[in-house]
Design brief:
Rossmann fold; about 50% helix; Dehydroquinate synthase-like, alpha domain; single chain; six-stranded parallel β-sheet
Length: about 375
């Protein structure tokens, strides 16, 4: 290697180290980016006032424009001068085409390098908005106000953004830390029951990778109706925060958050491509949790009683997706294109040895994956008595 090559390598290594350290420093303070309650409303007002001279923009979808924006403007009057950008609701609009329209609207409305984008909505809006903010003018600041249960406990936390590509989930994206994440549970009052239950799937996932006590607490909370919802939501959000802070670049432990998602994402993508009324993200994840709990039992020795508990809970509370045998080939083909694939032809899973003991980088093989989907199909007919 000559001197010129040495210099090039050294510069490249230096840049990678600086970027990594800056990102690591942001994530190590992740708890300091999350606000709720009265303190959260005060902090939101302070942040908005700080950016007003440079331009504040609010990204909403048609649903949050109607049901959430009026109360947001009432609670945070400083946003009344912000410029509103609307997008269509739904996973099918989490695309580069939608992002391009928002980039253009930001440009047309005079957004500057030091402007602020306030993203108000569920996981689609926060994923989309975070991606747009990270890329417009090479990066403007954003804050996330998730208005769904799924967004509050999972989608808005951790800095990930993602765009769907050709019907596949989150194939394009990056990690970008917002200036703040605001969890205002009053927004859940306008949430349809189906959306609310969808978010509970991510809470169950967090409990499964965390500890049996919290899992039992959620099972007996009657979908949080019998216990304090805000405390359970913050507990679930903090589980994800702890995982992300320990592994910001998803080199190891952060992969535990993929539990239920390898099969769940594939079922979601399949449903999006084939169904007039596609599954919601949490509904697909719930199906994925059952399938991957079955794989965990057969591959890692997860107790059958734990599989029974997970399967029964999902069967009682979530709509059962009627998987046709012919769909399995398509779903496996989708899994083989999943962003988590790290070896050609090998489908990577995060599984459970027991509740509270997740294991990453597992490769159970196609035969067992097919058996897990067959098991899921049959729980509708009382697989467990």
């Amino acid at each position: 290697m000559n001197r010129k090559q040495n210099v090039e390598v050294s510069c490249s290594q230096y840049i990678n180290i600086v970027v990594s350290l800056n990102f690591q420093n942001n994530l190590m303070n992740l708890k300091g980016f999350i606000y709720s309650g009265k303190e959260g409303w005060g902090r939101l007002t302070t942040l908005v006032d700080k950016y007003m001279s440079q331009g504040v923009f609010v990204l909403v979808d048609d649903n949050t424009y109607q049901f959430c924006l009026p109360s947001l403007l009432k609670k945070c009057p400083a946003l009344s001068e912000a410029r509103i950008i609307r997008v269509a609701p739904g996973e099918e609009f989490k695309t580069i085409e939608t992002a391009a329209k928002v980039w253009q609207e930001l440009s047309d409305k005079g957004a500057l390098r030091n402007s602020l984008l306030v993203c108000v909505g569920g996981g689609v809006v926060t994923d989309l908005g975070n991606f747009i903010a990270a890329t417009f003018k090479r990066g403007i600041d954003c804050i996330l106000l998730p208005t769904t249960l799924l967004g509050m406990v999972d989608a808005a936390i951790g800095g990930k953004s993602g765009m769907n590509l050709n019907g596949l989930k989150n194939q394009v994206g990056l990690i970008n830390m917002p200036r703040g994440i605001f969890l205002f549970t009053e927004f859940l009052e306008s949430l349809p029951e189906r959306q609310y239950i969808s978010g509970f799937a991510e809470m169950i996932k967090h409990a499964l990778i965390s500890d049996r006590v919290h899992y039992s607490e959620l099972l007996h909370s009657n979908m949080m109706k019998d216990l304090d919802p805000e405390s359970l939501i913050l507990h679930s959000a903090n589980i994800k925060v702890g995982v992300v802070e320990s592994d910001p670049h998803e080199m190891g432990r952060r992969k535990v958050l993929n539990l239920g998602h390898t099969i769940g994402h594939a079922i979601e993508a399949y449903s999006l491509q084939h169904d007039a009324e596609p599954l919601l993200h949490g509904e697909a994840v719930a199906a994925g949790l059952v399938c991957e709990a079955f794989i965990s039992m057969r591959f890692l020795g997860l107790p059958e009683s734990d599989l029974q508990s997970i399967a029964n809970f999902v069967n009682w509370h979530f709509p059962h997706y009627r998987l046709k045998p012919s769909a399995c080939n398509d779903i496996i083909a989708i899994m083989l294109k999943d962003k988590k694939i790290d070896s050609p032809g090998k489908i990577n899973f995060s599984l459970l040895q027991s509740i509270g003991k997740p294991v990453v980088d597992q490769y159970p093989g196609e035969k067992l994956i097919r058996e897990s989907m067959h098991f899921y199909v049959n729980i509708e007919y009382g697989f467990f008595s």
